[in-house]
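This part of the workshop introduces the protein records we will be handling. Getting from the letters to the C-alpha cells is the skill we practise here. An example says more than a description, so a record of this kind follows:
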Amino acid sequence: MFLKKIAFLISFLLISVVSTSQSKSTTFLCQGRVEKLSNDNVVLIGTASSVTFNFTGNKCAISLQSVDSWEHHNYVSLVLDGKYIGKLRIEKGVTQSFPIIVTSNKKIHTLEIYKTTEAHSGGILFGGTTAKLTSITSKKRKKIEFIGDSITCGAASDPSDVPCDKGEYFDHHNGYYAYGPVLSRAIGVDYLMSSVSGIGMYRNWNDENKDEAIMPDVYENLYLTKDNSKPKYDFAFQPNIISIALGTNDFSGGDGKKERLPFNAEKYVTNYINFIKMLYKHNPNVQIVITNSPMINGQNAVVFEDCLNKVKAAFASDKTHKEIQIFKFKPMTPKGCSGHPDVTDHKVLADEYAPFLKKLLNEK
C-alpha cells in the first residue's frame, strides 16, 4: 500500500488558538483513550485515539505537542474530508502549529486527527485549532474494543516515512491502519484500542512479570501504565464486543539473553480468566471474543488453542453473560519491521476477522 506523504510547512512558534463559544460536545468529537483537559485541550493517549471537528473555509491550523517525561517526537495520522492524507511528525519541545490546506469545494470540511503511535510512546496534546468550527454530532453505532499487544497496535507496520532499519521503534507505527480500526471502518462501528507493545497476559515479551506490568495490571488505568498519578479509565465506552488478542508475548522466547522460563499454561489460563472477570465487572453486557495469534505456529499454536478452550470452558456455566467466542487467525508470515505485520498484512487480518465480528453484532 502506498501512503501519500503530506507536505506541511511547520512553524515552531507558540500559537494562540482561537476559542469557540460552543461547547466541546458539539464542536469536537473525541474517541479512544483520551484525557480531556480544560479549554478544549485533549491528550491523545492510546493507539488510534482521535479528535474530529467540522469547519468552514479553505484553511486552518491545528496545535499539537508531544508530551512525555522522555522528550521525543511523535506521530498523528490525518484524514481530511474522508481521505487519508498521511502521517504528521510532531517534534519534541514546544507546541507546534500545523497548517491544513483544503482543496475541495465542500462548504463544510471534516478533519480527523488520529494518534498513530501507542500509549507507551507518550501523549499528544491537541491544543485546539484556528478553524471556523461548526457543530459535529456522533452517530449512534455499535462498538468494539480491541485489547492486545504490538500486533493490535499496528506497531512496526509502516516504514513509508522511516525505513525499518532506521529511526526509533515508534517511527514505524501506524495505528490507523491496524486491523482493528481497518475492520471497524469497514463494518461501520466505533472502536477503542487498549493495546501495548510487548505486553502479555501473565508475562511480557522479555520479562517474567518481574520488572514490567502485564495487561491485567494496567488495563484499568487510562494511560495503560501503573503510574497512579494518572487518571483511571472511566469505562464510559461500553462496547458491544471486546476482542482480546494476548498471548504472542507470553509464548515468546524473549531476546535469548534475559532469563526466560518455559511457557506456563496454568498461569496464562488463570490470569486470562481473572482478566475476563474484571472486564465483566466494568462491562456486564459485553460479548467477549478471544483470539489466537497469526504469529504463533507449530506446537505452541496447539498449546495456545488448548489454553483458549480452557478459558472458554471456565465460563461455560455462567448464565449471566454471553457465551465467550473464540476466533482463530490463519498463520501469517509478516512483512513489516522486526517480524511484525505491515499495513497490507493488517488488511488481511481485518478481512479475516470482520465477517465474524459483524455476524456477532447483528445477532439478536
User: Anything to note?
Assistant: Residues 1-25 have pLDDT under 50 and may be disordered. The chain is about 20% helix and 25% strand.
